[in-house]
């Protein structure tokens, strides 16, 4: 290879050579395609033994802790369960007024009113009790971790790595060891949600403290404050806005996790209700329960979100008045013996939704099936097992033969040669690579191609250090015996991410050029980001039943939001001067868009892609509930069997995939930012 | 400030170095042992270290307004942070009223800051979550003063800086000029002897800046603090200073009165600063007096000692012969060639 080649071209050509070799020799040498079983390390068993032994040591302590925690848990749960509903509604409405006046008070009133009328009051209060106990735990530990990382700079790197891991390890994965440690019951959900919700708080505390203006810090020093006075009287209050964002994220994460934790059961909460009705295929009821969750999420999100914004002081009298009104109605309802559990006012609606969905799927079943099958046959399946295996008389109407392969590669080679001839060698090699990948299928890619390919990407995006990290991490997955499942996960999340990138990118572009479009898209994005992961499964299931396509749709629905947001944000925040310079040079609207805005937005859009990837991996595990193969399924199975070894290794493998993807994309984003001098 | 000359200096800085980088202190010691003068800094730079302040030596007399002037990156902000020990200097000594504060314990340092030192910041450094009165009262709170006492003293200082009536406002509700008034009030709340001001007026627009400079001079005229004042603006330095130190690349290149800086710059760098300055307003006739008094002086336009060049030149516009200069009592003390007056005012062509 001549030295004049760019990094990208060198890497692409190298990977192409490896891929071609593997394709040609794969038939003769089995070990080139699948990692030989003889060389597989029984990591799952080892992990099971080590962690199992480790856990059994801590088990008594953990059980004691669990026992201790069950008291506040039960008190709060009893309190919320016994509190007359008008009192709770009145308190939330009063709180809403105190935070944000009429708007939030109305949100609180109608939101909780809906919950009362839905007939899920008791279940909702059980869920709320879990949140109420787990959030203070998460807030305090998050605050402590954030302050620690800030005060002891040597610990900062370690703490940040830990936070990264806590957030990339899929939620189900650490439920398993927690289950073994703490035993079945709501306390596991409580602890899991505290663990899951602490990192965003810690991150925002650290970020907020770091962003306090140096002069404010110095002013506190020069006023003669001790370190503790500086921290608690000046720096933390000055960082309030950022910390409040942390509180908001912490609350949302806790709610999301509490609902996910319902899969381990043992607590009659609203998440369990969704799961139960979903399993019974009572989609109307599941939909209603899901709506209750969404209402909770929106009320909690908007109220805590408003805390981070500058707000006007509200009239205290109205706040107390609302509270008093709630209490008065509560007294009346207790005297009159009115109980909301019997209401279930929307049961009729639920039944009608059920009937409606039933009728719809019956009427349009053929259309829905056609849609599903087309996407499966012409999109997902070839991606997964390659054209060579996916093209069958049953699916495409003919059988893929060696001649087809030859013609297919021939066309790809012509395009690649053309590109190479035009001086774009890297692009040419990538076209050839994609053709090879499509023919073989992602789930059947020979392992040297994946590892060398990822390593090469790492080299282009972040240099040797990143290559080393990527190769070592993927190597661990390879020898652990989870490789095939990892490839399956890679394929499904890859397919979703590509779809999200294309569709989300276009939607973001549309929202950037048309404020009208953004006015419509924005609330939808807000809503999608507020809904706990779990709820995404309901509508998908309603129309497409259990299966890979449903999982794919649920992942796309959830993961598309950051792509839209970041694309629009990147495209619309180009400095005004640059736009004016472009206009002064005579550039039209679309010329400005593609020549100025898009390159400037590239790092931001890459960050959006990065988020989309992480979201997709997070959802992949949840989607295991409705039928996916791969690591997600393993993690879910491990949870059911309390198999710590499998749960942790599969969770770690998942985290590794997410981490590798994250570092690669971050590397490219960083490189673009540097190139633009940002 | 001639009366201050006799007493001990308020601040005395000796051999102060601030070097950034790995193992800076050891590297500096080695470099100082092996080299001398500018070679020390060059040696450090060669090792990849950044000597931000290089061997600073100066004194600030009691009641003196000492201005440190330099462009951005010249090390002036680092220097003032070394003197106030907001950063730990690599080497040297800073004596405040005879006490080396670089050797002071953490406790002693907090005590000094609570009673003796006050500081004003370029971007004000106001606490966003506190009202004006709470901001101003914060140093008193650190001293342990009660709520009532804090409020009373805060109101006094707030009135001193002309912000009465705004004491319950929050920083975000104030204009830039008002914010800096709060910053000044806060730094004066504990009535410190030593007053550090780090580019206090640089972030303000020109009109407000001039207004605050004048008020600052008024306040200083009554309070007589010992001041270290940082600026990048030569006009500001000349207007305010008793003495000026000019910094370049971490080094103090010249220390002198405004007049010395303008009329006798030690090198081209200093001269470059004063190039565009109206020298006539900062220099007096003494600076261009002839060595010998000529015998023949036909005209006497009435020049006096201490008269600025501008005024003197206006008086002898049409004169070509040397003219006499008298002191306040009318005694002949020297002579000036009118052409020299004009020449001294000439802006140098670079």
Task: Describe, in plain words, how this protein is organized in 3D.
Chain A is mostly helical and 678 residues long. Chain A has helices spanning 7-25, 43-82, 85-118, 121-151, 153-168, 171-182, 186-211, 214-222, 227-238, 240-260, 270-279, 283-307, 316-336, 347-385, 387-390, 402-421, 425-440, 447-462, 464-479, 483-513, 515-530, 537-544, 548-572, 576-584, 589-623, 631-641, 644-676. Chain A has 3 domains: 46-82 and 119-314, MetI-like fold, CATH 1.10.3720.10; 359-440, no CATH class; 450-678, MetI-like (MetI-like fold, Orthogonal Bundle). Chain A is 82% helix and 0% strand. In chain A, helix 7 (186-211) runs antiparallel to helix 10 (240-260), helix 8 packs antiparallel against helix 9 and helix 10 runs antiparallel to helix 12. Chain B starts with 10 loop residues before the first strand and ends in a 5-residue tail after the last helix. Chain B is α/β, with parallel strands linked by helices. Among the domains of chain B are: 61-91 and 104-116 and 192-277, Rossmann fold (3-Layer(aba) Sandwich); 280-345, CBS-domain, CATH 3.10.580.
Helices and strands in order, then pairings?
The complex is a heterodimer of chains A (678) and B (350).
Chain A: H1 7-25, H2 43-82, H3 85-118, H4 121-151, H5 153-168, H6 171-182, H7 186-211, H8 214-222, H9 227-238, H10 240-260, H11 270-279, H12 283-307, H13 316-336, H14 347-385, H15 387-390, H16 402-421, H17 425-440, H18 447-462, H19 464-479, H20 483-513, H21 515-530, H22 537-544, H23 548-572, H24 576-584, H25 589-623, H26 631-641, H27 644-676
Helix pairs in contact in A: 1-17, 1-18, 2-4, 2-6, 2-27, 3-12, 3-13, 4-5, 4-7, 4-10, 5-7, 6-7, 6-26, 6-27, 7-10, 8-9, 10-12, 11-12, 12-14, 12-22, 14-17, 16-17, 18-19, 18-27, 19-27, 20-21, 20-23, 20-25, 21-23, 22-23, 23-25, 24-25, 25-26, 25-27, 26-27
Chain B: E1 11-20, H1 24-34, H2 38-46, E2 50-60, E3 65-70, H3 76-83, E4 91-96, E5 99-100, H4 106-115, E6 117-120, H5 132-143, H6 147-160, H7 176-188, E7 194-198, H8 206-223, E8 226-231, H9 234-240, E9 243-248, E10 251-256, H10 258-263, H11 268-274, E11 303-304, H12 309-315, E12 323-326, E13 332-336, H13 338-345
Parallel strand pairs in B: 3-8, 3-9, 6-7, 7-8, 11-12
Antiparallel strand pairs in B: 1-2, 1-4, 4-5, 9-10, 12-13
Helix pairs in contact in B: 1-2, 5-6, 5-7, 6-7, 12-13
